[in-house]
Fold:
Amino acid sequence: MNEVIRTICNHRSIRKFKNVPLTPEQVETIVRAAQMAPSSAYLQPFAVIGVTDESVKKQLAERSRCPALGDCGYLFLFCADLYRIMAAATDEEREKMKANLGFSYMHSTAVLSAALALQNANLAAESMGLGAVIVGGINSALPELDEWLDLPEYVIPLVGLAVGTPDEWPEQKPRLPLSAVFFENKYNRRLKDAVEQFDREVESYYETRSDNKQKANWSGKIIAMLTGDLPLEPYTVSANA
Ligand SMILES: Cc1cc2nc3c(=O)[nH]c(=O)nc-3n(C[C@H](O)[C@H](O)[C@H](O)COP(=O)(O)O)c2cc1C
Structure:
């Protein structure tokens, strides 16, 4: 196992941080690593916003019910960005471009590229001995978040990445068996046995982990979540504003 794979396989989300801010060099290294991710058609359709405004951090921590956003050493916000690609276009060209930006392909391509950049940043932080957690809960701060960060149209905030010096080292969460994730040539729909076996493993993980023990398993949690009312908007492709 090489160093990169060791770092990847050592991953766990960190939600408790020591009160140590990241240095400007650490912040820059993490963003530069994010930038080196591949992107569809070389669009580089993402933006990273460093949130240092304490009142915004506090709001985000509260709204997303994730104190780590307020307590971390640095908070990055990853956005899909289809605004920058129009910067050098004429008004006429911009109007034509906007017509194409409405297609869901453009949306998913921007989100995918932002996700790759996000994970590059996450891994860079972990490789530097820092800890991190990705927080999708920042969506609870929409639509005000657009205003707080002065986001233009076609810039869509996706997730926060809270990074800092770990003040916890939780047990790793188990992953699905390979047989339920990796298929050759044809998808295998016979998943029940593998998922039930995984549920037993996750049940034992939740019962025995050091913090926040609970009686739960993987399927049970997901079924409860997706059969309830999620606080989500119906899916639309259009950008904000
Ligand atoms: C897109 C995305 C959104 C997430 N949102 C949250 C969140 O809002 N709050 C949180 O505590 N963790 C969040 N997480 C972290 C996951 O809960 C975590 O990765 C998952 O439970 C697996 O645990 P591990 O990262 O420790 O292996 C998010 C992760 C991803 C990839």
